[in-house]
């Protein structure tokens, strides 16, 4: 159960990830599910890992569990970083806290997000799913860019991993990211409207990873940015979401046999974040979409450069409106 089966071999962090002593990593949403297991896998190889999460008691409880299960043989360190993705300004402040504490940053995993939730307006005037899954991770990462860049230029193996989703396939054709109205689209009256909104936010994550890679490449900075579709993963979050929707419950429970455990989901993050295979083949992995730890073809809309540019430009404009 500890290994994740890919098409060619099994990936096991304990043997397939090198010593990470001295490396600094951030995993958002690291207090539960596959994020929690990714934190564990990186820390056990010696990394200092920031568990970025909103709730202090849950985060400290998760860190206590990690310590009880053992962080050896690498004996890395796990620290809580307060990150509230429902508030872009707090997300910016969390990144600034990292800038004040660390001189280097090797791994950034944008894993946290809310799944198929009811449509809800955030105080910034954009629906909650888009704020939590796109706008806040965007400003968090943008604020960390100088540190990521300087670390890479100093010779560190720097990687950014955006967790996306198979639900991108549910997004109706010809999506746009031009205005608040585009971000606030409800898919009202459509089947699985919540999953479509979630899928659109995950499409944004994929397009944004492409744009990040283009930015680094244009500046000749050797950072590798990747999108990861972990497939179906049984986590506390996925179980809670499906319990609130009869159709999702039927689909989820009908496919449980084929789904991954949280530990296996963690492997899908740890592989792009830390496997030496990635750095050995940078041109293969730069801007890539990974499924089952293999480079996979992106959906047409997920590789649309014009849509990615549209996303970046509107995100920057709307963040300025928020005072960021």
UniProtKB/TrEMBL annotation:
Superkingdom assignment: Eukaryota
InterPro entries: NAD(P)-bd_dom_sf (IPR036291), SDR_fam (IPR002347)
A Gene Ontology molecular function term of the record: oxidoreductase activity
UniProt keyword Oxidoreductase, yes or no: yes
Family matches, as Pfam families: adh_short
Keywords from the named record: NADP, Oxidoreductase
Record carries keyword NADP: yes
Protein family (similarity comment): Belongs to the short-chain dehydrogenases/reductases (SDR) family.
Protein name per Swiss-Prot or TrEMBL: NAD-P-binding protein
Taxonomic source organism: Rickenella mellea
Taxonomic placement: Eukaryota, Fungi, Dikarya, Basidiomycota, Agaricomycotina
């Amino acid at each position: 159960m500890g290994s994740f089966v890919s098409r060619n071999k099994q990936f096991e962090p304990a043997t397939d990830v090198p010593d990470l002593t001295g490396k600094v990593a951030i995993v958002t949403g690291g207090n539960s599910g596959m994020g929690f297991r990714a934190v564990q896998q990186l820390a056990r190889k010696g990394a200092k890992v920031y568990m970025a999460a909103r709730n202090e008691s849950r985060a400290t409880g998760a860190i206590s569990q990690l310590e009880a299960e053992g962080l050896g043989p690498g004996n890395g360190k796990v620290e809580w970083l307060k990150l509230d993705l429902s508030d872009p300004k707090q997300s910016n402040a969390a990144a600034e806290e990292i800038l004040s504490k660390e001189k280097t940053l090797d791994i950034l995993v944008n894993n946290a997000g809310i799944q198929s939730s009811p449509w809800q307006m955030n105080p910034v005037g954009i629906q909650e799913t888009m704020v939590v899954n796109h706008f806040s991770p965007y400003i968090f990462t943008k604020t960390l860019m100088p540190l990521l860049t300087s670390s890479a230029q100093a010779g560190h193996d720097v990687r950014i991993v955006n967790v996306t989703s198979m639900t991108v396939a549910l997004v109706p054709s010809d999506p746009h990211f031009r205005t608040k109205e585009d971000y606030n689209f409800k898919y009202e009256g459509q089947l699985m409207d919540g999953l479509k909104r979630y899928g659109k936010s995950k499409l944004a994550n994929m397009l944004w990873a492409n744009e990040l890679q283009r930015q680094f490449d244009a500046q000749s900075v050797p950072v590798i940015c990747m999108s990861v579709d972990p497939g179906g993963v049984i986590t506390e979050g996925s179980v809670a979401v499906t319990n609130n929707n009869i159709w999702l419950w039927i689909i989820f429970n009908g496919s449980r046999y084929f789904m991954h455990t949280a530990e296996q989901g963690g492997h899908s993050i740890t592989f792009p974040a830390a496997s030496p295979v990635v750095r050995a083949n940078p041109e293969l992995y730069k801007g890539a979409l990974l499924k089952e730890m293999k480079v996979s073809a992106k959906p047409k809309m997920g590789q649309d450069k014009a849509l990615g540019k549209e996303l970046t430009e509107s995100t920057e404009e709307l963040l300025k409106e928020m005072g960021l």
